Amino acid sequence: MPIINTVKPEDATGELAELYGKITAMRGRVSNSAQIFSSSPELIKQQMSFIGYYMNHKVLSMPLLACIRTLISDKNNCQYCVDFNSSMLINMLGWTPKEVEAMRANPADAKLEDKEKAMLLFVLKAVRTPHTIEAQDVQTLRNIGYDDGDILDATNHGARMSAIDIIFDAFKIEKDF
């Protein structure tokens, strides 16, 4: 049970009930990862907007984004997020458990195209050691076809995952999948 008060879907009223309805329509249910934000409906709206933006990103693929989330959460020891995103790679994207483990052991082994691997490795470097990023790192991504918006979007995705990991771990979210 989380150590912050959350509102179950059956107990939600008003704006929160409406938001939960939208989440249910999108995902089929209101997971613990959504309920953790229930004491702040504005945060649920922000999170839904964030997810919607990336689900429809014109360049950054679902596999790349799931890899970013898995590896950021792995480094942060957020087991909920590691398991959730690993299961997404396996159940939705057809990866094998061995392929996920290989990526976790060595991100360069991610089952992605070389261009996406370059972005993945950049984001990991930016989130883990931001002071080591140099202009050439960004230029390398430009040279292989990413624009600055894509680079910023991918880095934001990784950085925001760290924030989510902190929230989920601090408030002791329970696995529900």
Provide the number of structural domains.
2
Rg (C-alpha, Å)? 17 Å
Q: What is the CATH class name of the largest domain?
A: Mainly Alpha
CATH superfamily of the largest domain: AhpD-like
Q: What's the end-to-end separation, in Å? A: 15 Å
H-E order:
HHHHHHHHH
Low-pLDDT stretches: none
Into which percent range does the helicity of residues fall?
55-70%
% residues in beta strands:
under 5%
Give the overall average pLDDT.
96
Named CATH architecture of the largest domain: Up-down Bundle
Shape: globular
Provide a count of the helices. Answer: 9
CATH topology-level fold name of the largest domain: AhpD-like
Main features:
AhpD-like, mainly alpha, single chain, globular
Report what the structure shows.
It is built from nine helices and no strands. The mean pLDDT is 96. It folds into two domains: 9-55; 62-170, Up-down Bundle (AhpD-like). It has 177 residues and is an all-alpha fold. It has helices at 14-27, 32-35, 41-55, 62-76, 79-91, 97-105, 114-128, 135-143, 148-170. The two termini are 15 Å apart. The radius of gyration is 17 Å and the shape is globular.
Can I get a quick summary?
The chain is mostly helical.
Question: Layout of SSEs?
Answer:
Blueprint: H1 14-27, H2 32-35, H3 41-55, H4 62-76, H5 79-91, H6 97-105, H7 114-128, H8 135-143, H9 148-170
